[in-house]
Amino acid sequence: MRNEQSPPKVFSREQCKAKAESYCAYQERSQHEVRNKLYEWGLHERDVEEIISELIQSNFLNEERFALAYTLGKFRIKGWGKIKIKQALKLKKVPDKMIAKSLKSIDPDDYAARLKVLIDKKSETLHEKDHYKRRFLLSRYAASKGYEQDLIGDLLNE
After folding, report:
1. Exposure string for 17-55, b = 16+ CB within 10 A, e = fewer
2. 20 to 30 A from 72, CA-CA: which of 104, 114, 131, 153?
3. CA distance 38 to 60
4. Rounded to an integer, what distance in angstroms lies between the CA atom of residue 40 and that of residue 49?
5. Could you tell me the CA-to-CA distances from 107 to 73, 111, 144 in Å, in that order?
6. 20 and 57 in contact (C-beta within 8 Å)?
7. Which one, of 108, 38, 44, 101, lies nearest residue 69 by Cα?
8. 105 to each of 38, 62, 74, how far by Cα in Å?
């Protein structure tokens, strides 16, 4: 039995465009994700940029819509804070302006309530008796979820 990888399957430009359309229709994608996928499928830079442009024109690809969907999804489903969401969007090469706009879509009351639920839930699982160690552990946990230190501190002081 050979342990060699088969060469990557090469698709035509039209096949790649059709695959990219279904890739974008399945779930919101960033331009960076689609660009990487097109390169993975064996296309050259000129074709990749043309397909990206066509996907944007036909509204399969919309960076602003992606940023908003990603932000709200990570906040509502995963319970991520703004810092973690911002970092993840930066890794996906979303422009800072769109990141800021999508983060503004999170309701501040929902944000604070979500943090409180997160801390209360974690607090129930901690067996630490020392007040300061417990506070530190809760603070570190909330920070790892991407919440701001001042907000965490305010909530823990209550």
Report:
1. beebbebbeeebbbbebbbebbeebebeeebbeebbeeb
2. 153
3. 15
4. 14
5. 13, 6, 21
6. no
7. 101
8. 31, 17, 13
Q: What is the DSSP string of 70-98?
A: HHHHIIIII---HHHHHHHHHHTT--HHH
The pTM score is 0.85
61-118 tens-digit pLDDT: 999 999 999 999 999 999 999 999 999 999 999 999 999 999 999 999 999 999 999 9
Mean pLDDT of 44-70: 92
The identity of residue 16, as a single letter, is: C
Alpha-carbon span 145 to 143, nearest angstrom: 5
Exposed e or buried b per residue across 96-111, where buried means at least 16 C-beta atoms within 10 angstroms of its C-beta: eebbeebbeebeeeeb
Please state, in angstroms and rounded to a whole number, the distance separating the CA atoms of residues 63 and 24.
Answer: 11
Model confidence pLDDT, tens digit, residues 77-88 = 999 999 999 999
Long-range pairs for 128-133 at CB < 8 Å and ≥24 separation? Answer: none
The amino acid that residue 22 corresponds to is S
